[in-house]
Amino acid sequence: MMLSNKEKYRLLCQEKPIPLFMQAWWMDAVCINSKEWDVLLSEKDDKIIGVLVFHWITKMGYKFILQPQLTQYNGVWIDYPDESDSSQKLSLEKKVMDELIQQLEKKKYNYYSQSFHCSITNWQPFYWQGYEQTTKYTYIIKDISNPDKVFEAFNHAKKKQIKKTLDEFVLDFCLTDNDLYNFHTQCLQDKKKKIVYLNTLLSSIYSSGIKRKQAQIIGIRDKENKLHAASLFVWDKDSAYNLITAFDRRNNASGASTRVVWEGLKFLSDKTKNFDFEGSMIEGVARSFQQFGAEQVQYFTIQKSNSALLSFFLKMKTIYANHR
Question: Which of 279, 270, 289, 255 is nearest to 160 (CA)?
C-alpha cells in the first residue's frame, strides 16, 4: 500500500528532529481542519532528504500559501548528512530546494509567503526561481540549563524588576487556555485593540501540547489574587518558545511581564536547550528581548505572487496599514 506524503511525513516526524512548528501534530493543531495543510517531499533511494510544509487557504477565488496563526515558521527542512563540508551542503540545498520549488509551482498558488526556521541560512535557490526575501529577527537565549548563569546575563533593569517582585507576586500554574484567552482579550481591549486569533485555535494548540507535555501556561498574581501577567510556553527538545504573553498595562510598572519570562526560563531549564522569544521587528519589543541577554538571530520570510492584480492590492493594503 502506497503511503501519502502526509503519512510519510508523520512517520518522519517520529524519527527525525523536525522543529516544533513544522511537526505534523502542530500543523494539525493550528490548521484544525487537516485539509488546510500539506507537505512536499524530496526523496532519494526511498529516503526523505527534504520537505516543505505549508498551510493554504482559498479566498475570493485566490489560493494563498501562508503562515498559520501563532506559528513562527514552517517551510523547508533538510536532512543534512552528519559529515558534510560547505560545498556538499550547498549542493544538497540546491538539489532539495529545486525539487521542492518545482512541486510547489504545480500547486498553482496565487500568493506565497512563508517564514523559514532560522537553521535555513540559504534561500538562493528560491531567488533564482523568482522569489523574494525579507530578513527578520528573533531573539534567542542559547543554553538555559543553568538558570543562575542565564540570570547573570540579564541587564541591571531586568534583574532589579525580578528581585522587586519576589515578595509581591505568587505563581499560578493552574490557568486554563480559556483563562489566558479571556485575560489577553481584556488586556487588548484596555488598549482599544482586538484579539486576532480565535479561542478555538488556542484551545487546539494547548490541548495538543498538554497531551505531549510540551505546553504550559504560567500566571503571575498579586497577593490580592489579581492576575498581572500570563504566558503560554511551548517547546521541543531543542527550543522553547514564548508563544503568547499578556499583561495588564495598567500595572505596567509592576514587573510582572519580566517575572513571567524568568519563571518560564526556570521551568523550562531541564526540558529543552534554548529559549526563543519569537522575535519582533518593533524597536521597543526587540530592545526588551535584548535586555534578557538574548542573541539576535535572523530568519527569512520568502514570498512570491503569481498575480499582478493581487500584488497591487496587497501592496496598497500594506501602505494603508503602515500609514494609519
Answer: 255
One digit per residue, the tens of pLDDT, for the chain of length 324 reads 789 999 999 999 999 999 999 999 999 999 986 679 999 999 999 999 999 999 999 988 889 999 999 999 999 999 999 887 899 999 999 999 999 999 999 999 999 999 999 999 999 999 999 999 999 999 999 999 999 999 999 999 999 999 999 999 999 999 999 999 999 999 999 989 999 999 999 999 999 999 999 999 999 999 999 999 999 999 999 999 999 999 998 766 679 999 999 999 999 999 999 999 987 888 888 999 999 999 999 999 999 998 777 776 666 454 433 333
Do residues 113 and 303 lie in contact, with contact meaning Cβ atoms separated by under 8 Å?
Answer: yes
CB burial readout 193-220, b (16+ within 10 A) else e: eebeeeeebbbbbbebbeeeebbbbbbb
Q: How far is CA 312 from CA 62, 108, 130, 306, 317, in A?
A: 14, 19, 17, 11, 9
Residues paired with residue 56 on neighbouring β-strands, in sequence order: 65
Q: Scan for cell 512548528, then name that residue.
A: 21
In the chain, the N- to C-terminal Cα span, in Å, equals 56
- Cα dihedral 144/150/151/154 (nearest 10): -120
Cell of 7: 503519512
